[in-house]
Amino acid sequence: MFIDSAAELAAFCGRAASSPMLALDTEFLRERTFRPQPCLLQVGTHDEQAAVDVIALTGEALAPLRDLLFDRARVKVLHACSQDLEIFQILFGDIPDPVFDTQVAAAFVGHRLQMGYGALVEAVCGVHLPKTESLTDWTRRPLDPEQVSYAEDDVRYLPAVYDGLVAELVRLDRLTWVLPEMEALVAKARCAADPEDAFRHVKRVGTLNGRQLAVCREVAAWRERKAAQRDVPRKWLLSDEVVIEVSKRMPRTQERLRRVRGTAQLKEKDGDAIVLAVRRGLSCPQDRCPRVVHRARPTQESESVVDLMNALVRLVAERESIAPQLLSGRDDLMAFLDDPASSRLGEGWRRDLMGDILSDLLAGRAGLTVKDGRVELL
């Protein structure tokens, strides 16, 4: 059903309150704004689904839905939830928990990492979902029945997928592995982004030195705050390419700033603000200039060791039916090689699954061989 009235929403939430889980998804638009613009919030139980119009319903009209979502006794089930959690933050000022992400859970039971929702539904439920409305402008009203049905499909099958994944996790005794990963997702989403750290996400920031990085920090922070204030995409003010060029040239006047291609659209007051940001970066004490940490290039010998460790990870992942990327990446293996106790592979379920066997491999107490065309542990 499509819900755009407070009375309909209250009635639906009253029925959904008896469900121990809620399947959730969102539709939004972010091409023309700094923050994503919420358009629909889809809610599903085992019995029914609804697409809630969060353009028509705002503020107190959403109170029954907020109460439903923020009841900690009820599991909130989503797929690839990071962007959805951002929408909840915008709509409600917080993120409901506990959260269960079916994409993460699927990787613990043998599916590939970052498996799409459609592929997972097909694998678990045997249903092929159409992609006919994937480029819909969800801000336009009215929505036709096909659009609403497409949106509701995103929660229609989630309860069955959730039930199947939980049953498999329990069978494999891995539910305790998954839950901390879910808690980490929510904790990360709750951390407010600091404009002073925005420079770290600028493309090619690794090409800058200390003083240039100080300028980049100030210019990127100005862009972050101004884009948020005007609610426009960052690139509408300055592209990453221009931020990097300004950081390298360090223009101290408007005239020199305008020599950088891509600054012609700037208003004069914005040009003044950027020049001031450059000057702040130039006046930053040397010991307070930021650094982009570059991991030392591994030696040929350590690269070979990591290749062997990675082969072991893939062997264990195949044996345990878990996505190998979930176990570790090359950086995790390098960190384990440097200091096992402080690495991600040295704690929690990863340590239980991989820590001892990796230590045996590095100590020469274990090895790998090929038998009948397959890698096996010695």
From TrEMBL:
Gene3D superfamilies: HRDC domain (1.10.150.80), Ribonuclease H-like superfamily/Ribonuclease H (3.30.420.10). Residues 209-288 form the HRDC domain. One of its GO terms (molecular function) is nucleotide binding. Its EC number is 3.1.13.5. GO terms for biological process: tRNA 3'-end processing. It holds the Pfam family HRDC. Keywords: Cytoplasm, Exonuclease, Hydrolase, Nuclease, tRNA processing. SMART domains: 35EXOc. The keyword Hydrolase applies. Its cofactor is a divalent metal cation. InterPro entries: 3'-5'_exonuclease_dom, HRDC-like_sf, HRDC_dom, HRDC_dom_sf, RNase_D, RNase_D-like, RNaseH-like_sf, RNaseH_sf. One of its GO terms (cellular component) is cytoplasm. It is found in: Cytoplasm. It catalyses: Exonucleolytic cleavage that removes extra residues from the 3'-terminus of tRNA to produce 5'-mononucleotides. The keyword Hydrolase applies. Exonuclease involved in the 3' processing of various precursor tRNAs. Initiates hydrolysis at the 3'-terminus of an RNA molecule and releases 5'-mononucleotides. Belongs to the RNase D family. HAMAP family: RNase_D. This is Ribonuclease D. The gene is rnd.
